[in-house]
Every structure is written in C-alpha cells, then in structure tokens.
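User: Assemble these into one structure.

Assistant: Restating your components, then the assembled model:
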Amino acid sequence: MKPTPPAIHNAFDILEAFQDGQREFTAQEFHKKLNISLSTQYRVLHALEDRGYLRRDTQTGRYRLGFKFLQVGNLALEQEEIVETSRGILQDMCDETKETIQLGILEGVEVLYIKTIESPLPLRYVLQPGFRTPSYCVAAGKAILAYESEDKISRVIRAGLRRFTKKTICTTTALKRELADVRRGGYAVNWGEMRKSGRGVYAPVFDYSGRVAAAVGLSVPPERFTHKRLPSLAEVVRRCAEEISSRLGAVPLKTSATTGENEAASLAEAPIRSKQRGGSNRKPEKSGRKNDTSG
Amino acid sequence: MKPTPPAIHNAFDILEAFQDGQREFTAQEFHKKLNISLSTQYRVLHALEDRGYLRRDTQTGRYRLGFKFLQVGNLALEQEEIVETSRGILQDMCDETKETIQLGILEGVEVLYIKTIESPLPLRYVLQPGFRTPSYCVAAGKAILAYESEDKISRVIRAGLRRFTKKTICTTTALKRELADVRRGGYAVNWGEMRKSGRGVYAPVFDYSGRVAAAVGLSVPPERFTHKRLPSLAEVVRRCAEEISSRLGAVPLKTSATTGENEAASLAEAPIRSKQRGGSNRKPEKSGRKNDTSG
DNA sequence: CAATAAATTCCCATATTTAGAAATTTCATG
DNA sequence: CATGAAATTTCTAAATATGGGAATTTATTG
C-alpha cells in the first residue's frame, strides 16, 4: 500500500497524546501510553523539543506542548480565506448581539469550529476553536447539512444519530424534515439537542461556486435565548452570513427557492483526488440528478 | 551526539514552509524549496495528509495546512494555565477599555503573543496570537525584561538592538534605564518603538515563584493613545496584571522594591532554542556540548 | 484526439533508523 | 552521605526508510 514513515507517526502520536486533557507527560507516561520503544521515543522527543513543538516545564522537567503549535496553527487559520474574509463581520455581530460568535465548517461528519469571538457578557457559551461536535445536533451543523449533498448527509446518518438529550434528532426522517425547515428559513436553531444548556442560531455561508462552505452564528446560554429574542438574532445571523457569502463571491440566493442541493450533489463523492478539475471554464452545472431517496 | 529522525524534520520542514505566507504548495514547490528527495517527500506528504495536518484544496489539488493544527495548537493554549487563569480578566479589560488586549510571554529573546482579545472598535491594533516581536522595543517585552534575570537581558542585548523607528531604544544604557523606569512604575509603555503606529501599555504578570511569567496589556492605535488617557489605561493594566498574578499564586509585590532579579538568576541557564526560526532553515546539527559562558 | 510534458508512483540496493537490553546517570530516601 | 530505584542514554543486530531513476499516470497543448 503506502508505507508512511513511522517516525512521523510517533511524533504526532506523542503530540496528540495531549488531546485527552493531560497537560504534562513524563517520558515514561508517553511510553506507557503509546508503546513506542524507549530509545526511539527519546529520539523523537528530542526532535520535537528542538523544534519547539514540545517544551519541558522548567520546574518539573515534564513535557508540555510547545508554542510552535500556536504559531503554525494560527497560520492555518489565517490562511483560510473564509476566516479572513469574515473577520470584521464576526466582530460586528458580536458587538451587535453581545453573544459568542462562531464560525464552523463541516469536516468529515463533524462540525469543526474554526473561529470564535467570545461574548463580552459574564455568562457565555463558548466552544474553543478546534473543537468538534457532531453535525446533526448543533445549529452550525444543521445549517451546513441543509445545503450539503445527499451523499454527505447520508454519510452523517450512517455514522449514527446518537441521542444526547431528549431534544436530539435521532431519526433519518426527522433529520431530513429538520433540514428542509432550515432551507425554508435560511437558518438553523438548536434548542439543546446536544447539550441541555446549548443554544444557537446559525446560517450557512456559501462560496463563489455556490457550495456551502461554513456556518456562522451565535451560541447563547439558555437564559438569554428566548422565543421572543430569536427572530432578531436569526435575522442578524442571516444577514451576516449573506454578507460573508457575497464577499466570497457567492451569488445571493433566495432562502427557499434554490436549494443548493443539486449543485452540491454533482460533486458529491470526492475521495479520489483525480476529480475533473480542469474545467476552469466549465462551472459546476446543476445536473438534474434529484435522487430523492428519502422516505 | 543525538541523531534525530530525518522523517520528523522533513515533516515539520514541510509544515513550516507555510510560514512565509504562501498558502498553497504543489509537491514540486515543496521539493524545490526543501530539497527533499521526491519519493521520500511524497511519503511524508501522504502521512501528513492522512493525519489531517495537510489537506488538498478540492479545486486545485494543491496542499494547504490542515485544521488538525488548529486543534492541537489550541490545546497548547488551553493547557497554558496563565491563559486559562486570565481568560475572564482579559475580557473584562477589553470591555472596560474597548481596546485590544494581549497576553505575551518571553520566548528566547522575543515576545510571543499567546492570547488576543480584539478591540470592538473598528480601528484597532492587533497582533495575532502566535506572532513574535523583538522584546526590547515593545511594551510587553519591556514589561517582562524589567523583571527578568541579568542573564536574559544581556542575551537580548547580545542578540542586537536593531533600530526600527527613531523611537527605538538601541543602546544598552538606554535600555537599562528604561527597564529601571518600568520597575519604578510597574508598567511599560511603547510610543512607537517598533512600528511608527504601534502603541501599548503592558504590565508584568508573576507566578507563584515570584518570577515574571508574562506581560498583559493593551495595544492601541495612536489616535486613541493620548498622554491624557495613558494613566487610566496603565492603571487598568496594572490592576489586572496584579489580579492575574495573584490568581497564579504570586505574592503581591511593591512596584519598585523586589526586583525578582535574583530569584530568576538562579535558574538562568535555559535551553537556547531560538536559533532556528522562519522555517526555511535546515536543521542545524546540534553540537555535543554547549559553551557555557555563564559563570 | 494525439502527442508531449509534467507529476506521481514504483522499484531496489544501500544507508539509517529501530528495538531491546545493558550501561550510565539522575533522583529519592533512609 | 550512602543506597536503591527510576529515568535516560548508549550500543548493536535486524528491520526499515531512503534516494535516484524508471515506469506509470495525469495534465497540457496543438
């Protein structure tokens, strides 16, 4: 197949070991956790330390994540044009609503939050950038899925609609109905489908090709997320999402008419890197392939 | 005498290639830039792509930084207790001053900004987290250096006091005088020493051991940085820095009395790693022993 | 649509890394 | 300050990655 250098995997295994919350490791702890042979592991540790990806606590001598990651990680963010494009708008949204603004994308079957502006209010709901959630049970995810290809949606469904709260949407039909609702309104709402106290309104962001690229919106603690307030929040979110879309070169689309579903469906499955990309003069046609296999 | 696996360096060389601003690379571009043998390079690229550190643009097929970096990079941030400890305080500072709040640490001879809360005002001065500046010519740097060991300070001086603007402090004596001033007042000010339009007030943050751990403060566009306003800003900054320090377990210290110099001097010898930066450096082979000139 | 150029993968002898244990150093404890 | 335990480095045969070119695939052009 394709053998990849084990040293690389060792390196990232070590770095990713921090993902379950532990913030300091001794060499022995790495060893126990990862089963890398000790001599090899020490070589890797030294390499990572030299490069600034690991550092040793001055006091304890234990390993911690280095700041080099912050540097490169932030690069990844800056280089994402959608983040740069929306920077000012997100801040404006926050100023206007005083709520936490977040920008999320669909990665795999999950939502990955890539940008956060925290609410200035003391009580706030925040997911740190880099955080992932299931897509089918958060507003950002539903906002994206509503305009994604059938293929992506069924992949999400196949991955399982696990129940988190009693509000969680757990059946295919309910989810499809919900997504249709989202398309009708142009935004998605979450009344605690993943966490009892999680609330949010998100709207989809489209790029120049008409595909849904992200979802932008706000996460609000239940205390401030009332039925009365929702319409105005939703309006802000929708307006800002459209503004970002247009800056990305998207043509404004009417909320319920053009579903976006078909365009997206045409370039559904994409694990093969040999996609027909040559068509710079050939824009993705809306092939009439409306296989509504739902129901 | 410690050979580190080249595969690891290849991997990070590739990832760090993005540091000079280019956000898409073809395999050939990596090859030209890094001189890694093609077959090896492809193996590395595949490994990085598999792990999510690189991804290929759907359109162009070119390589871009993946979001995995965001995840792990943010981990590094969350796991830095000073960031967590100060989270609320920084937000409060921002609410109170409406200016950009930043938290910086000294890494090597440079200041590394690790946390930023952007001003809500349209005109604002922001350094993205992960950004580095020289330490001797920014407020954050001076706030830290003022309480650092002689050893650290002379290392900064040896690294060179380059002139950026006509305000830049470029001589040893001037710098030492400035740092003494900082110690007297408990905060540092920058009136454009690095960039003509850069202004800031920063105060040092100390940890439980009494060492200076960071600097916190605000970066302000010149239009809003008046002599009249400075005292109140400085007061906010000092108060918040002290609050963070005390949360870190520091004993409150009088502004001019304890220098912190001696405590810090005792553990002067620190890993010298700021040799390599800016990405395009091939790893310099580490010599077996360090020239200890500290005595 | 064919021909050409470029990009990517495959192949294999050679050099390097790896794993495991032993030797050494560092740290904790009486 | 000596002793024992743990952590880290060193050492070597064996396994594996590496690099360079050839073969293949993919893009570009007339």
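Residues 113 and 131 of chain B are 6 Å apart (CA to CA).
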